[in-house]
Amino acid sequence: MGLMGVTCAAQAQTAGGVLTAIVQPEPPMLMLGLNQQGPTQYVASKIYQGLLTYDAQLKPLPSLAKAWNISPDNLTYTFELQPGVKWHDGKPFTAADVVFSVDKFLREMHPRARPVINKYLESAKAPSPTTVEFKLKEPFSPFLSAFVVDNMPMVPKHIYEGTDFRTNPANQTPIGTGPFKFKEWKKGSHIVLTKNPDYWKKGQPYLDEIVFRVIPDAASRAVAFEKGDVQVLRGGDVDNVDIKRLKALPGVESTTKGWEMYGPLAFMIFNERKPPFDNVKVRQAVMHAMNRKFIVDNILFGMGKVATGPIASSTMFYDKNVPNFEFNLKKARALIAESGVNVGATPVKLVAFPYGSSWDRLGEYTKQSLEQIGFKVDLVATDAGGWAKRTGDFDFDLTFNFTYQFGDPALGVARHFMSTNIIKGSPFVNNQGYVNKKVDELFTTAAAARQPDLRQKLYSELQQILVQDVALGYLFELEYATLSRGNVKNLVTTGIGLNESFDSVYIQKK
Amino acid sequence: MKILSFIAARVAKALLVILGVVVLNFLLIHLAPGDPASIMAGEAASSDPAFVEQLRQQFGLDKPLWQQLALYLKGVLQLDLGYSYRNQLPVLDLIAERLPATLLLMGLAFVFSLGVGVLLGVLAAQSRFTGRRRWLDSAIMSLALLFYATPLFWLSILLVILFSVTLGWLPAFGMSSVGAGLTGWAHVQDVAAHLVLPVVSLGCFFMAVYARLTRASMLEVMGMDFIKTARAKGVPAGQIIRRHVLRNALLPVVTFAGIQLGQMAGGAVLTETVFGWPGIGRLMFDALMQRDYQLLLGVFLVTSIMVVTFNLLTDVVYRLIDPRIDHGAAA
């Protein structure tokens, strides 16, 4: 019976066809080791691969590595690679490529992998062409979560060794091990990837080509999907306001799965260095004054859920038993009175978050909410460059941001709260200036801890403190809908969703 | 000979104007807060300050502003417009790749708006002048008012909804059918179909302007004594319109055409965005949002050269239409 099911499934996977999707904004380049923007990840993850991928529970699954082993002292990680893997130019992919990628290329070039590699990796060795051995300086449990393709893509040693990685001409014609090869990029119009006939999984991929169209206007993207010119919409491709309508079209499927690895979580950033937000009671009052359910229902059109704390509910070690800041203006005003701070004394500078109309509405809603409890608010409009500059320079009283979790609190969450991460000039750090020795300690211990139970205990304690302190103003977990035409199958299969290689995606013939 | 020395003097002035444009733009862009390094770091969700610093060095943003400007100007004189780190390509290559699409779009929109606009204007003036079919005058003027008042993006979206979504006659975006592998005549037809909606969207506003301008200007000329003389002599109405009225009425239209060519680059940003047209307008917009300084300056340089050239052409056309205009005396 089980065997029959497998056979049927295999027969149903028809080869052939062109899948058309949207890439927006247009990525600057497709060399995944050099650029990590969302659109780059989306397209280049079909060309490049990582050692591992992750299921919806964020447990590692084989990709270029078929097996792995961790030594009892948690210091040595050994990976057994898939045999017979070739780069798109025909050269064999070996353990030497892995060592070069991690120890040379990514150590130097990758803004997210680099801190982990530099801090924890002692050495990388290739004892055999299909075996890689990483030795760590100190135990770091989330190490195994760091091998996802957008974090540690494998790059070809024979092309990059001894060159200036940034200016290597090969960056324009990416060479990976993935199921699809780079074929054509007409800037401003489209990117075409074509089937890799020598892909290491026999019989795969099923698609002949993937076309990513560049359509800069959100309304035009909705039209493109409605007309059937594109078959897949990724979260963010169209405004939330259009999703309900598109979802209702005949033959359209939608899912919010496939974002578990990223778990995007939005929050307010208070400038905690100066009044009024240096006072924890004032921050708590703000939390009581914001109707987060209202925000999710009306500003996000239901595409999200209220966040409880710094860790997204899809991420390991999430704990929902934390203090709850329900919407209550009376409580908010009482807390302000208790704090003794004259919040109306000087206007609060609220720097808008320049990433679309939902964020504009959120800025306006926040201004109104705060003014209800006595604040004066200046809403400062800005563009992406201006926002990054102001936030990095701590030139704000209040602003918004959202962050990816990268599968483990040590990778995606700790950076926003560690006092060692208060760094001027960068917008994705501890910009609020939160300093708590206890929190620093707990994050450090939790990152090194081996037993999941112990890690859970430490992260639960952290969530208690960070919520009680309102270290950030946790607002909502963003939900992104993937919309697709019903004949496109196997689109979302893992915890990284559309950043998966698409080697098993197929178009069902009618 | 006079016209040649006129052109030479104008070109010399134009070069100074372009230099001024480049310097001014350079300073203005650097006045805006934020730089490419911080934006790229933000997009990579990086919390690594060494990464931002490394990007700044890579872009030369750690050097004093005047040094950056001097380096840039030196490059421009050697026809090197710099390197877009964002796109990892030389600026000149990026612009050369996108410029033809914009020129095609702008050129056709120009011809469309001028041709249709003048034609409508003539028809309206004629019907008023001859007193026959007065409803035509009202109809054309109402239509012109409508197009004059409709915002470009709104019109674009309406056209897409009607002709692409509802009727399915025309493609909604892009410059050609991707992956169809069309060549030769089939390719030309394909691109032509993709051109219809953006050209109409971009051209409608100016078409309305030309219609109104031509009509008003013609009616003014029609009231003049020499026209009355011609009518009294018994010259047929059609001939009066063509020979005497239109020729005299076209000067203000030409003036405006020069302005339109300059302004259309701005409209192209919107049109190219809505229709996913791979042109230079969007390249400029993206470069601005990403603080891609060298690319942005490159686009400014190219567009200012275009505007200056169009103005020069306008002046030459003036003289061709009305030989009485003497540029030498004016210069």
From TrEMBL, chain B:
What InterPro entries has UniProt attached to this entry?
BPD_transp_1_N, MetI-like, MetI-like_sf
Q: How does it sit in the membrane?
A: Multi-pass membrane protein
- Location within or outside the cell: Cell membrane
The primary site where this protein sits is membrane
- Give every ABC transmembrane type-1 domain span: 99-318
Q: Where are the transmembrane segments?
A: 12-32, 103-125, 145-171, 191-213, 249-275, 295-314
* Gene Ontology, cellular component aspect: plasma membrane
Recite the UniProt keywords alphabetically: Cell membrane, Membrane, Transmembrane, Transmembrane helix, Transport
- GO BP terms: transmembrane transport
User: Does the keyword field hold Cell membrane?
Assistant: yes
Its domain of life reads Bacteria
Q: Could you say which protein family the record assigns here?
A: Belongs to the binding-protein-dependent transport system permease family.
What name goes with this protein?
Answer: ABC transporter permease
Native organism: Ottowia testudinis
